[in-house]
Amino acid sequence: MTVRNGFWSATEVAKPSTLLPVSPALGVVMAVLALVATAVAAVGMLGYGPAVLRSGVRAVVQLGLVSVVIATITRSIPLTVAFVVLMYGVAARVAGRRITTGRAAWWAAVPIGVATAPVIVLLLATGLVPPRGITMIPIAGILIGGALTATTLAGRRAVDELTHRRGEVEAALSLGLTDREAALEICRPHAATALVPALDQTRTVGLVTLPGAFVGMLLGGASPVAAGAVQLFVLIALLAVEATAIVVTIELAARGRFSHPDTIAEAARPWWRPPSRHPPGAGSRT
């Protein structure tokens, strides 16, 4: 099947259960909402006005391309794996750039990979998720997306805490804590709140929100019980993935992996302690 035929086949299948009609009116409403979001961000001086508009345009382009090729990708296991790896690479790059700059940003790939890979392998090994592109890509995308959000939030909060609370890090070091222990004492409480969005989503499901997986399955003709079971699985899996990603991210931040060479160690070094003569990472007390 060609890409064009695959696209139109997918479109025809989706017609009976379309939640929003794909029409010029939909495009106009989305454009208006994007402009409103951009204007509100600009008027409120949030600093993200242009970024909101760019993100909207980028989403249109990316989803358009995925809609065209997804039917072909899901019919090939090698292409499916390649697409999942691409999602992972993009997520690692985005999270890293949100946390820090330079080569240190690639450390964000560690928590995302450590959190998502075991869950995906477990699902495939137990047969809960069949090795087919149409099921692997959505599940992997949901898990990687959750890990991306958790890593970004935890990483930014941890690095900010260690940067702005240097005096408290010095005080912890003066009490005999190691560099890692002092950093964890300061950054962990605030960075751990990155798990709150996932907790709130799980606590309020069915009462405040009806998540996408549940609604999508209902529109696709699944029974409410089956849709609920899938959505429950997604929420519990996301809790496991995001909790793991946050723990690994905090550990990396405490060890200075998201900083330029020795930035955190030098910032935390008491004035009476001479600078370390070891290269970054060598002879560490962690």
UniProtKB/TrEMBL annotation:
Q: Which UniProt keywords apply?
A: Membrane, Transmembrane, Transmembrane helix
Would the keyword Lipoprotein turn up in this protein's UniProt record? no
Segments passing through the bilayer: 25-48, 108-129, 135-155, 205-226, 232-254
Record's InterPro entries?
Answer: UPF0014_fam
Superkingdom, taxonomy of origin: Bacteria
Name of the protein described by the UniProt record: ABC transporter permease
Query: Where is this gene product found?
Result: Membrane
Keyword match Membrane: yes
Q: What is its main location?
A: membrane
Q: Which Pfam families did the record assign?
A: UPF0014
Q: Which family does it belong to?
A: Belongs to the UPF0014 family.
Membrane-protein topology: Multi-pass membrane protein
